[in-house]
Amino acid sequence: MVVKKMGNIFHIFLNSLKLNISFLMKSKSNFYFMFFLQIFYYVVQVIFWSGIFNISNSDFIKEPIKIYGFLVTLAFIDNFYLTFFGSGSLNMQNEIFKLSLDNYLIKPIHPLIYFIFFKPNLGYFPGFILSIIFLISYYYYFNINLFQIFIHILSMLTGVFILNAISFIYRISCFWTNCLVMIKNSNPSFKIMVRPLESFEGKLRLFLLFVFPALFITGVPSSILYNDIMKYWLLIGFIMNIWIWILVYFLWKKGVKRYLIISV
To answer: Where are the transmembrane segments (predicted)?
Structure first.
């Protein structure tokens, strides 16, 4: 029974991939344009931090291992999220707005699981591959040892899932409102993940670590990479992941209950 269910889930996932690929092949210009925008975005990031490098006395900016470590961490997490998870919460939001969530509530797998894992966007895949190349190049150039690489990869995966959870919390709010803000493609964590841990201090840093844990997306993984913080922060990241996904599930259940009442 379990094997059959897993087979059905895998079949649904393959169908999602096929649909995504066929859509991309129908609009190759869109595909190339998305890739160009990704490259342009990271070029802007490099130019920005290079400018800061020239005018700042910060210890963070003075050390290339830190600035480049942060940038490759940001690129990997951002592209991993956009390729495999980014479309899920947006698709869920659109279905809520159209009052057509019922089609997903009767699927053989949990609708929340479906939105999380079964909405890849392969238009970002070239950027994802490029970010892996940059990451490997960084490991090689700065002689990062295997244990450090392993911890860094785990912390980045933690960051991806926290980013995804925050995205779902943000978009699940559509059950009650027209979204927390009217810019429907926005995400509050994007404003934080493009800044290193060193950009935040005091109570604000504590808030962004233990209340709204956006610093676990890129700030903590990059700091773990260049040994600015201890490895036990990886465990704290796992704990924050668990509680924030519990919150996602709780809000989802409440939201669906409200949706079923409204859509009748």
So the answer is: 31-55, 67-90, 122-141, 204-226, 232-252
Q: Are 61 and 67 in contact (CB under 8 A)?
A: yes
Residue 63: phi and psi, rounded to 5, are -110, 110
Distance of CA 114 to the CA centre of its chain: 16
Give the helix ranges, DSSP H, for the chain.
2-26, 28-55, 59-62, 64-84, 86-97, 102-105, 111-117, 125-141, 146-172, 190-193, 202-210, 219-225, 232-262
Among 148, 153, 160, CA closest to 230: 148
- Per DSSP, the three-state class of 109 is coil
Phi, psi dihedral angles at 102 (to 5 degrees): -55, -35
| pLDDT tens profile 55-82 | 455 555 557 788 889 989 999 999 999 9
pTM of the entire predicted model: 0.82
CA distance 234 to 224: 8
Closest CA to 193 of 80, 26, 63: 80
Tokens of 248: 């996602």
To the nearest 10 degrees (0 to 180), the angle between helices 232-262 and 146-172 is 20
pLDDT tens sequence across 145-190: 999 999 999 999 999 999 999 999 988 988 887 655 444 456 667 7
Angle at which helices 2-26 and 28-55 pack, to 10 degrees? 90
